[in-house]
Amino acid sequence: MLWKTLLLLLFYYSAHATVTHKWNRAMLFPAAQRFKRSSAAFLNPVLQNSLEDVVLLYEFLLAELDIDKSQRITIKDEELASLRKAAKFDTICNEIIPKSITEIRRLSSMLSSYPRVLKKEDFERTVLTMVYTAYRAAQSQGHQKDAWAESFVSLYKALKHDLMFPYSKEPS
What we know:
This protein is mainly alpha-helical. Among the domains are: about 50 residues, no CATH class; about 70 residues, no CATH class. It is about 70% helix and about 5% strand. The chain is built from 8 helices and 2 strands, in the order αααββααααα. It has a two-stranded antiparallel ribbon. InterPro entries: FAM180. This is Protein FAM180A. Keywords: Signal. It holds the Pfam family FAM180.
């Protein structure tokens, strides 16, 4: 009986840890979870898997982006836009990253209390959200400009904290 109870507790703990892990990931970028269920095209789109990918992402951002009135992001350079990685970039920018100030503030809030180092896809998505937020701040005026700028600073602080995470703990 004791073994059955112990096995049941271990199974419960394992199942709870798995659900909690998936729940935490869904909390940062819930659109990524919805997108995965609806399409097999990109199960977990990530742009940066190598140094060349990092350089390519930089080229995408440097090549000038077009953000239309419906907030759809496209790469203006046709040659770059035709690359396979550009399709992933499009998916992440237009289907996954948050675009409303409310969603971005929710993300910033979650990141401010995130208990561990971000996974590379979450870090990448946060950086792209920050780029989008900077664009919106530059295009806005008055109170809205302040709200977008405040969101940008919050995302910056969260990324800085993530980069410093292993060094921010007190030595034991």
